[in-house]
Design brief:
Elements (H helix, E strand, L loop, with lengths): L4 H8 L3 E9 L2 E10 L4 E5 L5 H11 L2 E6 L5 H4 L2 H8 L3 E4 H7 L6 E4 L4 E3 L2 E7 L8 E5 L2 E5 L13 H17 L5 E4 L9 E2 H7 L8 H8 L14
Parallel strand pairs: 3-4, 4-5, 5-6, 10-11
Antiparallel strand pairs: 1-2, 2-3, 7-8, 8-9, 9-10, 11-12
């Protein structure tokens, strides 16, 4: 069934997500260029590893990059943040809590809370989701959420201790409460499934979204039978 004119107009004004698979040795990350098709302004999420690929994507999209969104402070997510921000004369946004936790600094760094960021016609809603790190933040843009190392299609991020595991459980429960079923989930890594799965699919298939309480969640997330070789075998 073809879309009506009104539906075509709405679709044409929704944020566009350009997915970039980048790597460094055996480390594979996903960066995301998020474009407002009306203003042609864009932001990039967690730029890392392959600067030429990032620059090419920005050029090919024909956009002005106006911000870098960082989900957390780990090096595979911040690697090119300063370089990109300097090249495009734009700010780096990271949660105040994560900045304080990690001591992260950059000339272009702007601490944020959960106040929305406006880029062209896009409303970017930061959602504080501690667990993997104390200041981890997801970014909800229309019906797309960028989850860093908080939520993967196949599981959730590592938690260093029981307090962090309890925080992770609360963060995942919060995401369950605020996300529509047709929200597309774009994590920082993939362990088998293509990024951009619908949240409804994750609810059915991701075991970490199915625990009834934080105690059972933490016991499973921190279970001793996980070996270093299978640390990302989420089941």
């Amino acid at each position: 069934m073809s879309m009506s004119y009104q539906e075509q107009v709405r679709a044409a004004t929704k944020p566009q997500v350009i997915m970039l698979k980048v790597s460094h040795h055996r480390m594979i990350n996903f960066n995301y260029l998020v474009v407002d098709p009306v203003s042609r302004l864009a932001v990039i999420v967690d730029p890392a590893w392959e600067l030429d690929k990032i620059n090419a994507a920005i050029h090919q999209a024909g956009v002005d990059l106006v911000g870098v969104l960082l989900t957390h402070s780990h090096g595979d997510h911040t690697h090119l943040a300063q370089t990109v921000a300097q090249s495009y004369h734009c700010p780096i946004w990271m949660s105040q809590r994560e900045i304080e936790y990690a001591g992260y600094h950059a000339a272009q760094l702007i601490p944020i809370d959960e106040s929305p960021l406006l880029v062209g016609n896009m409303k970017i809603q930061p959602v504080l989701t501690p667990g993997h790190t104390p200041g981890s933040t997801c970014y909800l843009i229309d019906k797309n959420i960028f989850t860093g190392d908080v939520l993967f299609a196949e599981g959730c991020g590592l938690c260093p201790d029981i307090v962090a595991a309890h925080d992770m459980y609360s963060s995942l429960e919060r995401l369950k409460a605020i996300m529509a079923m047709d929200t597309r989930v774009f994590p920082g890594h993939s362990y088998g499934k293509v990024p951009g799965q619908y949240f409804s699919t994750l609810l059915k298939e991701n075991i970490y979204l199915q625990f009834p309480d934080k105690s059972s969640f933490a016991a499973f997330r921190l279970r001793k039978r996980q070996s270093s070789a299978r640390v990302f075998d989420f089941k």
